[in-house]
Amino acid sequence: MLLTELLHPGILESLAGSGHGARVLLTDGHYPASTAIGERARTVHLNLAPGLLDVTTVLDVLLRVLPVESAQAMAGPSGEPEPPALTAYRSLLATVPLTTLGRFEFYDAARSPDLALAIVTADIRTYANLLLTIGVRGRVEGT
Question: Does this model's pTM top 0.85?
């Protein structure tokens, strides 16, 4: 039995096989997961029912087990207010550089060969997609 909060076998396996610079995509329920994901990435579907699990919840758990170097979020159309999801991400990723990309730029970034894992949620918020870049593990005490 693991002591970590993260228990999903597919997610754990993908993260364990990823290294510095690999990417993890967290998608909302509107994301075109069949066409806008890197072809080498493992896809994990957590979209059981609309709104049942959102990107913010998944991000909160991942941040406890994964060093994040940087993040990119999908931005809404120019001139519209910042999406509520982006505000939540800024709060959770307080010390992590977070940039925004337009919709099609974001799709291109998610198709990167560096994408190791895509987690599809049932988030019903618009523009709630997030791309994380894995950082390096900190020094372990006693070494």
Answer: yes
